[in-house]
C-alpha cells in the first residue's frame, strides 16, 4: 500500500491542528492511497506542492515535497520526494540529512500530460544500498 500527502500550491495543508484556514483549496484533499500493481507500480494525481515557512523565528522554509508512506506486511517506510531546482533545498535539514542519498529523492520530470500538467516519476527502492528512506 502506498500513501502520499502534500501541501497545496500555497504550502497549506488541511489539518485539524493547523489554525490558519486561509489559502485552503476546498477541491484539494492533500492525500491519497493506492495499492501497487503486480510489478510494484503505483500512480497518483496531485498538484505541485508549495513551499512553506517551517520556522518563522529563523526564516527557514521547507522546499516543495511529497510525503510517501509504503507499507508491506508489518514494515513501513516513509520518504519524501523533492523537486530539483527548489531554492529551499540547501537549507532544509531533512534534505541535508540524506547526504549522498539526496539524488535518489528527486522526482524525475518525464513530460506533459493531456491537460498540460507536468508529469513526474519516482522509483522507490526498498532494501539494499539504493533504498529511498527518511524513517521506517
Automatic annotation (TrEMBL):
Keywords: Dioxygenase, Oxidoreductase. The keyword Oxidoreductase applies. It comes from the Bacteria. Residues 1-95 form the Intradiol ring-cleavage dioxygenases domain. InterPro entries: Intradiol_dOase_C, Intradiol_dOase_core, Intradiol_RC_Dioxygenase. GO terms for molecular function: ferric iron binding; oxidoreductase activity, acting on single donors with incorporation of molecular oxygen, incorporation of two atoms of oxygen. Belongs to the intradiol ring-cleavage dioxygenase family. This is Dioxygenase.
Amino acid at each position: 500500500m502506498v500513501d502520499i500527502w502534500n501541501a497545496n500550491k500555497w504550502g497549506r495543508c488541511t489539518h485539524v491542528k493547523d489554525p490558519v484556514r486561509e489559502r485552503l483549496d476546498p477541491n484539494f484533499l492533500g492525500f491519497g492511497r493506492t495499492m501497487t500493481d503486480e510489478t510494484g507500480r503505483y500512480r497518483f494525481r496531485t498538484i505541485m506542492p508549495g513551499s512553506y515557512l517551517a520556522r518563522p523565528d529563523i526564516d527557514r522554509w521547507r522546499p516543495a515535497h511529497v510525503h510517501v508512506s509504503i507499507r508491506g506486511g508489518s514494515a513501513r517506510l516513509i520518504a519524501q520526494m523533492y523537486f530539483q531546482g527548489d531554492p529551499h533545498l540547501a537549507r532544509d535539514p531533512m534534505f541535508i540529512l540524506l547526504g549522498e542519498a539526496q539524488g535518489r529523492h528527486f522526482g524525475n520530470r518525464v513530460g506533459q500530460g493531456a491537460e498540460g500538467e507536468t508529469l513526474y516519476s519516482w522509483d522507490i527502492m526498498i532494501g539494499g544500498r539504493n533504498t529511498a528512506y527518511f524513517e521506517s
